[in-house]
From TrEMBL:
SUPFAM superfamilies: Radical SAM enzymes. InterPro entries: 4Fe4S-binding_SPASM_dom, AdoMet-like_SPASM_containing, Aldolase_TIM, Radical_SAM_PqqE_MftC-like, rSAM, rSAM_sf. Gene3D superfamilies: Aldolase class I. Residues 114-251 form the Radical SAM core domain. This is Unannotated protein. Residues 314-380 form the 4Fe4S-binding SPASM domain. The lineage of its organism: unclassified sequences, metagenomes, ecological metagenomes. Keywords: 4Fe-4S, Iron, Iron-sulfur, Metal-binding, S-adenosyl-L-methionine. The keyword 4Fe-4S applies. The keyword Manganese does not apply. Its cofactor is [4Fe-4S] cluster. Coiled coil: none annotated.
């Protein structure tokens, strides 16, 4: 049996287009490097930041290695930060980009995805939502997070995690109380992000998002015409989604002219014959700051596949964690039915689960080339 093509989670962006102020950002980084001895930092932060700045002083010869470098969308995020925020951002970005490669671990995941809801109005052809074992309520995976649990998670991770995404298996804007959740998270994370299919992006939700000012708002769209969109985003209404995104831009420009929010249309590169990337980019650039395509992660049947022979450790065990709507903390979203769940927030804290026995055992098995003994890892191509 031949080993299938690997899906490298840390390099999933195929392309990102936008306006990236690289020269200005590196001028500020040079100034930070010179001022590093004068900064009041913890020893841990000082050490990691020194490594990040040292790497950024030279162009990496091999971008698949462990040298830290800035991707285009990272440059844009840095460009919108103040000088005071720069050290904190680079420290956490280094942890996110490099720790999964060097297999370093500290008390918190570099990124946490908090799931407002696992319920979605779409049945996209490339998504877990096509599996009735996820979507049918009788299986126990469908629901939405309570405001109390959301606040509990935010309180635990504030000051420890900067990259927080409000999204996972479902559509966040279907969540009752999403406006209150956004308000509670406002100003607490440098890298707060939300993903949405924009179906329910009405004026009220638009203002809630813009007032909370997350770092990035990602609109999930993979086409520039209604016919192609309907084939990929099943149950979606292209005209409604486009109208909502256009309206969001109008509100942002009119009422929040100084907003630092980055808007991005992000599509899954699922079928190159069906999707004209240049046409899609040209269409959506009128409405958003960035247009991106990410590689398709072939997740299908990971639970049922025969062992695929992959023995490389999955980088997500050191990069991110997911907290589902019911508090279950999961190591990845390919395991959308929570076979690998190492703990539940409420019974334990995010940090306790991240450094606890369940996660440690998973990491050890992956490092010891035993991922084929784990389901769904044995049928998954992600590393």
């Amino acid at each position: 049996m031949s080993t299938p093509r690997l899906y490298r989670k840390g390099d999933s962006f195929q392309s990102v287009s936008g306006s990236f102020s690289t020269e200005a950002v590196f001028t500020r980084i040079d100034a930070l490097r010179a001022d590093l001895p004068n900064l009041v930092l913890t020893p841990e932060m000082s050490g990691v930041l020194a490594r990040a700045l040292a790497d950024l002083a030279v162009a990496p010869a091999d971008r698949t290695g462990t040298t830290f470098f800035l991707r285009p969308h990272t440059v844009e995020e840095l460009a919108r930060l103040t000088d005071d925020e720069l050290p904190r951002y680079l420290y956490h970005r280094f942890r996110y980009d490099v720790f999964p490669k060097t297999k370093e671990l500290d008390a918190y995941p570099p990124c946490l995805q908090i799931e407002p809801t696992s319920i979605c109005n779409f049945r996209c052809v490339f998504c877990f939502q096509t599996d009735p074992l996820l979507t049918q309520r009788k299986h126990g995976h469908a629901g939405q997070i309570s405001l109390d649990l959301f606040k509990q998670i935010v309180d635990q991770i504030e000051g420890h995690i900067e990259f927080v995404t409000m999204a996972s298996r479902g559509e966040p804007l279907m969540t009752k109380g999403i406006e209150e959740m956004l308000a509670y998270a406002s100003g607490k994370f440098l890298g707060l992000k939300m993903n949405t299919n924009a179906t329910f992006l009405d004026d009220k939700k638009a203002h809630a998002i813009l007032q909370a000012e997350p770092n990035t708002l990602v609109f999930s769209a993979d086409a520039a015409d209604a016919v192609t969109y309907a084939q990929l985003r099943v149950n979606g209404d292209f005209d409604r989604v486009m109208g909502n995104i256009r309206r969001f831009k109008e509100i942002k420009e009119r009422d929040y002219p100084n907003s630092r929010l980055i808007t991005r249309v992000s599509g899954v590169a699922f079928d190159r014959e069906l999707q004209d990337h240049q046409k899609i980019e040209e269409f959506w650039r009128e409405y958003v700051d960035q247009v991106a395509f990410v590689d398709y992660n072939p997740w299908e049947n990971a639970y049922d596949n025969e062992p695929n022979g992959i023995d490389e450790a999955c980088s997500d065990l050191w990069r991110r964690a997911f907290v589902w709507w019911d508090g279950k903390m999961n190591p990845c979203d390919v395991d959308y039915r929570s076979f690998l769940c190492p703990g539940t927030v409420g019974d334990e804290s995010v940090s306790e689960i991240w450094t606890g026995l369940g996660y440690t055992t998973l990491r050890e098995k992956h490092l010891e080339m035993q991922r084929q003994s784990l389901t769904p890892c044995r049928g998954c191509v992600s590393v």
